Amino acid sequence: MKRILIVDDAATVRLYHRQILESAGYAVDEAMNGIEALEKALQTPFDLYIVDINMPKLDGYAFLRQLRTEAIVQSPAVMVSTEAEAGDHATALRAGANDYLIKPVSPAQLLAHVRLLLGDTAP
Amino acid sequence: VTPLLEQFIAESRECLQGIAEKLMQLELLPSDAELMGELFRLVHTLKGNSGLFEFPEMTGVLHAGEDLMDAVRSGDISYSQALADQLLDAMDFIGVLCDDIEATGAPRAARAAEAVRITAALRALLGAAATVASAPAPLSGGAPARAVADAPFALADVPEDARMTAYGRTALEGGLYAVTYVPHAECFFQGDDPFFTARQTPGAAWGRVLPPAAWPALADLDAYRCVLQFELLCTAPLAELQEHFRYVADQVRIEPLDPRQLAFARGDAAAEPVAPEFIAQSLAQLDAGNLAAVRQAAQTLLQFTDPDSDVASALRWALLLLGGEPGELTVVRGLYAALHTPTAAPHGAPAVSAVAVSAAAIDADTLRAILAAQRQILSFDDAPAWKAGRVQAAVAALSGCCRALGDDAALARLDAAGAQGTQVLLAWLDAQERAWLPQTPDEPDEPDMLPVHSPAHAPVHAPVPADEAVGRDGARRGDEPPAMPRHLKVDQAKIDLLMGLIGEMVVAKNALPYLAQRAEAQYGSRELAREIKAQYAVINRIAEEMQGAIMQVRMMPVSFVFQRFPRLVRDLCRKLGKEVALVLEGEDSEADKHIIESLADPLIHIVRNSLDHGFELPDARRACGKPAAGTLTIRAQQEGDQVVIEIIDDGKGIDPALVKRKAYERGLIDETTLERLADHDAIQLVFAAGFSTADVVSDVSGRGVGMDAVRTAVEKVNGSLALDSTVGQGTRVRIALPLSMAVTQVLIVESDGQIFGVPMDHVVETVRIPRDAVHAIKHSQTMVLRGSIVALKPLNTLLRLASVPQLNAYDELAVLVVRVGEQSFGLVVDDFRETVDVIQKPLAGVLAGLPAYAGAALLGDGSVLMLLNVKELL
To answer: What helix, strand, coil percent values describe chain B, rounded to 5?
Structure first.
């Protein structure tokens, strides 16, 4: 089963994404900020990261830069943000994201992107 | 309520609490960037969460709040108290919505108008320039499909001519609202005429009546119930609409619309696609500002187009909008772009390869977006430390795409290219994109352009990326082991149950001494009696310890009540134009939860009084040589088995002369008292029922439920209240409360062959006086106790018992001296018995109407002890 890490400080958003991804048969883990995410990711790499931008302690950009610097296995990351932050896609990609979605993400949209990045086809 | 919604409510409450705290802290440190960032993050989280649900009121308000905070954070707007006020207001409203959602799953319909008001107030702070930049997304992008989806009701159903009329009118009158009016089923009985009301709506450009989702069977149809609802599109000022619907405000939802939301094409699919050259040329002319040419072209094309087609509709809108403000041109662009899309993504072209077909099945747009993103990543020419990782991740993403498409050949080539650097990878990507997406309409050549997944947005400030060094330090801090929670959250009902059980146990153990007595007296077994007593001592100790421990669990810090004061004081000061600094002391003093809770209202009352009547206006303070800002100190401390709370202000104090005059005017005291009353006693008159010194009832206090309500509340939990005041210097209110109220100590007295309990709090002393020491003064009996006169009241008389008090062998009366408020009375009883700890239970049912009794308690031998309410009795 492919493992996905959801990195978001909003518990509601984590639960929302978790429900969508678990219903599609993925194993999901959560982190509430960049530091926790980095700890988990460096211990056991995930197959995909879904990352919020604005988080306490270590934000999404800093987390990705750190992950891309230190991780041995690199997996795709989807940056998810709200309109207020959506100003600069290039910043996200430069920091190490591979895809960019605007909240709220519909279940179909999320799964379409996740499946493509993970190399899965829809059932 | 789903788990997701539950989570949402819980997290929202947390965020709201956090926002309130941060705002308070910002009052003190308005330039603290970290606090500001934290505040923004909380509002942002709230808004992001609300977007997962269909709560437009909530998202609207939060969106405005977020934009505002963003502007403050980036320094476009300076932080001000007015701003904080507005934001707190908005957050209170969100709290109300959360309550609604928790109760019914959705906000009440009546909240919409309030949401509009608050959103407008927040936007007003943002200023005109910012408003345009952060206008709701669907409007600026001009993507019609999204605009319709976001509209409160199906705008798509509104015919084009009505939309155009409304659009034209808004240009003149301003204000465009979607009104949804759902009359109560019983509205006909309330004198409403929904149809008439709807027809008379000011500025109605379009309206319709909607039937219910499903009609009931004809037999069940009640013609006297209204099942219809109305939808209206109005161009009128909001105030006028609210005025019109004022009697049915709770049944009406008024939502503001941007006129640009009206501009979308509707019609039959055109038989012929629009020539791409026309669109490209028009867009180019638009960019060049050559509007006349665009208009000319549109008019020409319109003549050759079926008037019922969507193309004609789009062209008509374009022509209308071209005459409008420059801001509307983005919408025109959107209209042209929409003309473009349906014809640009046909299924007509035959598949170039097998892989391309499956790519289409997978969702060409998603694939295109991801490929474009990887292209951009591979094209970056910076070389940060994480560059290698970034490229690896891009390769991983591309490999995912290959596998998803089932294109093993491409995957093999990718693996080969991966080792040869970014240029080779880019070449692979170009080739692959052509193969997978043969119909790419406009090649995204600019590396910085990404296909967007939702309508384009006006640029907003992007958060500043965190400094790299900070990130690294942060990561190291993460090594610390996570703290395990040391607190358990327990439902209060469980603690109350424990409390009730231990109460019963304390009473039940009291049966053992009686049992010992019986063992000795009835069965003559002194040995057994002694053993029972020994066991009793053990059980007694354990029970008492247990009771103490459970009571400890119920203890909570007074900060629970104190935490609301900073906000209260701040808001009131703002309202009253006063300056007061609040000092809180001893917030960790603890008392029983029940006591703390019952303390909340009296304390708020006192603080309000103090702010309203106690503190002078800054000018008046300066005039009498005090600092302009007053100080309000609220201090809690434990003294013995009491927790004492003092509320001290350095305001103008209470003027005894004024109090006396007011009390006299209100008939609370007579003329002789007026002359005699000492100053200290005079100010106690503020506790009298119905007393108010305020000449005008103000918004803040002085509605007549005054300090007497405070005293009643405090005395209800066996507390006491004292008031000191010095004119010109300030006022001090001192509230003393028991730490716990679970167990009451009572003195048992005997009268007329029955026993009664008197709470020890009221008992001053017990004395026996000779019969001839009783004097009669003015029809009442008195005695002299250590130089002061004490009125005597026989308990039998008070309880309407016929018998007279009994004398003991020495011809003495038993007198229980009790204190009620400041006065002492002598209760004449037959005899005194022991004191006991009892759990006081309130009287229920018919007995609840007997004011002479405070409650009842169960004694160890199973008999019931009636507890006297001394205050009512006298």
So the answer is: 55, 15, 30
